[in-house]
UniProtKB/TrEMBL annotation:
It comes from Billgrantia campisalis. This is Nucleoid-associated protein YejK. InterPro entries: Nucleoid_associated_NdpA. Keywords: Cytoplasm. Belongs to the YejK family. It holds the Pfam family NA37. NCBIfam families: PRK00378.1. The gene is yejK. The keyword Signal does not apply.
Length: 337
């Protein structure tokens, strides 16, 4: 992933009751292999975490970008200011958000990268964790390293999509974990970002459409399993790459012989789905299997089995297993002897 420009600033937060302070770098980072690896891992980490998807809000109906990050980013891309000056203003904007929500210091990494024909602007507040190392004298000494697994603030902007002709509501992805929703909301407000797509909601609707499609086609259990696995594999691959699912591509994945079948089912039933859907990994994982544990009973089964070899009677709150696994069946028989 070629890095076009990158820089690191420092935000210090010594105590909750004391205001955060900002130390600005005066020059960009020099490209290096460790830096490239860091930015790549940062992208991978963001892809794996719960995210919000959005776009720059507009100031009015004429399509002019709102004042804020959109305007400053436009100035930078139009070369009306350099990368360092652009990130100075960005860091100043973020200082208030960090001060209001976080109680630990960190380094603000901003990187302008290119992957294929697509350009991105990424930023993340990186925190540290303490550890140990063995020095050249074979002695144990303290060591500090960046903790990428504990990201609190991060976002990525698909610059090519933002500047492209096709309208989109999801060219910005930002960290939106359960424990940091207020931080994510304030970050979006600070930078002029409007949430455009409800990834969990859209993913749930897509999975409902898929379940309806399988039931309508009256597929055999093996076919149902294969299509479920194909959907999950495709969605998971897109999630790992930080890219949305497209309904037409998914339809082709599900049935090579009838590549438009699932797509036409969605359009005819009018589920209200967007042509591109950001996959929500938590929702996908829940769809793959049903699990539950209570009172010494633990149950887990593939979702495609519901309605075929497993039925749920909601009126009496009963789960009916039509095909008992052989090993379990043998244990039950021995118990009755």
């Amino acid at each position: 992933m070629p890095i076009l420009h990158s820089i690191v600033h420092r935000i210090d937060k010594e105590a909750v009751e004391r205001p955060a302070t900002l130390s600005l770098a005066e020059a960009e980072l020099t490209d290096s292999e460790p830096l490239d690896s860091l930015v790549t891992r940062l992208h991978d980490t963001l892809n794996a975490k719960p995210k919000g998807w959005g776009y720059f809000a507009e100031a009015d109906g004429e399509g002019e970008p709102a004042a804020g990050l959109a305007g400053e980013l436009d100035d930078y891309l139009a070369q009306r200011c350099d990368f360092t000056d652009f990130t100075h203003r960005l860091a100043q904007r973020l200082l208030e958000v960090v001060d209001a929500h976080l109680s630990v210091s960190g380094h603000l990494l901003v990187a302008h990268t290119r992957q294929g024909d697509t350009q991105y602007l990424s930023l993340a507040l990186l925190h540290h964790r303490s550890g140990f190392q063995i020095d050249t004298a074979l002695k144990v000494t303290p060591a500090f390293q960046l903790n990428l697994t504990q990201l609190s603030l991060a976002l990525r902007i698909n610059l090519s999509q933002w500047q492209g002709e096709a309208p989109s509501l999801q060219y910005i992805t930002f960290l939106r974990d359960r424990g940091g929703r207020k931080l994510a909301d304030d970050l979006a407000a600070c930078l002029g970002i409007a949430e455009g797509v409800d990834a969990p909601g859209e993913t749930r609707t897509l999975l409902k459409a898929f379940s309806d499609y399988v039931a309508h086609e009256d597929l055999a259990e093996e076919q149902s399993r294969e299509k479920t696995e194909a959907l999950i594999d495709y969605a998971s691959e897109q999630a790992s790459r930080g890219e949305p699912m497209t309904l037409e591509a998914l339809s082709e994945v599900l049935d090579e012989q009838q590549p438009k079948a699932f797509y036409e089912h969605i359009r005819n039933a009018d589920y209200g789905l967007s042509p591109e859907i950001p996959p929500d990994k938590r929702t996908l994982n829940q769809f793959r299997r049903f699990t539950g544990r209570a009172g010494g009973v633990s149950i887990s089964f593939d979702s495609h089995l519901l309605g075929s070899s497993i039925e749920y009677d909601e009126s009496q709150d009963r789960l009916i297993i039509k095909q008992v696994p052989k090993q379990l069946r043998e244990q039950l028989k021995r118990r009755q002897e």
